[in-house]
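Q: How would the structure tokens look for this protein?
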Amino acid sequence: MDSESLTTLMQTVVNGLAVGAVYAALGMAVAVIYRGTRVVNFAQADIAMVLTFVFWFVMGRGLPWYAALASSLVAAVLVGLLIERLILRKLVGEPLFTVVMATIGLSTILQGLAGILWGHDTYRLPEIFSGSFKVSGVSLLKTHLFSIVVASAMLAVLAVFLSRSRTGLAMRATSSDQDTAQLMGIRINRISALIWIIASLISVGAGLALGYSQFLSLAMGGFILKIFPAIILGGLDSLGGVFIGGLAIGLCVSFAGTYMGGLFGGASSEMVSYLLTFLILMVKPYGLFGARQIERV
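A: Here is the predicted structure in token form.
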């Protein structure tokens, strides 16, 4: 392999890891909700979009980035709490299809509200992570590093929180068996609200990673369909699995775009990611790291 081919290969890997980190970040927000409530939230990308718009709006008023970040985090707490209290709590015990349709409806509502508040144009986030540097001929964008660091940090924080804190252990107990957890004195409603708040906080990081690496517009909500291969590949109830699945799908998308773009056009990357997902599910129906569910009859 000559030096030019090697540089192209390494650049493809770097780009794939950066894209995969965005998939992983948003996928972990979906996985947190599913682990705790068994709800697949199709509005998670729209939540990330709204919170990223909050960041963009506050910085546009001349405030520093840390004030904008604090505003987005406060908005995340309020959004997560309101969604759980006003919508999801009312649907406890309803069929799964009803709950899924409610999240799809929520997605449409959030897009409509965002369009009313901020318009339908495509925006660029204020430059904080601009520029790039080269290592052995491979270009590393600061936005790429930001995405990778954010996704890795969120996984580490979640892992420590769920395994070491009393609240995290209560969340794990609730996700395993809500009836038993309630008998042990765990307040299920409070845990459910906390799960949605945590997912919204994760969405702040995911939305910023997506906004800085690609765009900021109402179309961010459609990104949810792109992350499902990563979520399914890693296992919907495994945060570490979703992280690895996100990186794997990101690499597949990057390699397909670099080496197969001439064969199938722009659709090659999407096709390869879903094809890989189908192949994995034929062998591992619960994903690479998902817990196998056994029902006794």
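The beta strands are 132-135, 138-141.

The longest helix spans residues 3-37.

Upvote if useful.
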